[in-house]
Amino acid sequence: MMTIARSWIKENSTLIYFLIGQLVVIISAGAGFLSYMVKLETRVSTMETRGAAFTVGRMDSFDKRITVLEGVIKGNTDSINTIREIMLRDLPKTKDGGRQ
Q: Which pTM was predicted?
């Protein structure tokens, strides 16, 4: 049995080297992929911890700016309504209640 196995290995040594080479390539590709995934997860974790405070602060500043803009818009709307009322006050009304 051992003699048969040795003779088969000698006859098919090219095939065995090829299969061993493929195994080495697959293992190294798996190790490279695992290394890449670990680096990526480390980056994501770092961004989540460092970036969270920055993002919250930035969103707070956006909220403040939006609140200021809403106040300006409300003031402008009130001014426009006041100007419209003054302009429309002296126009005569039509029979159906609208303005000419």
A: 0.44
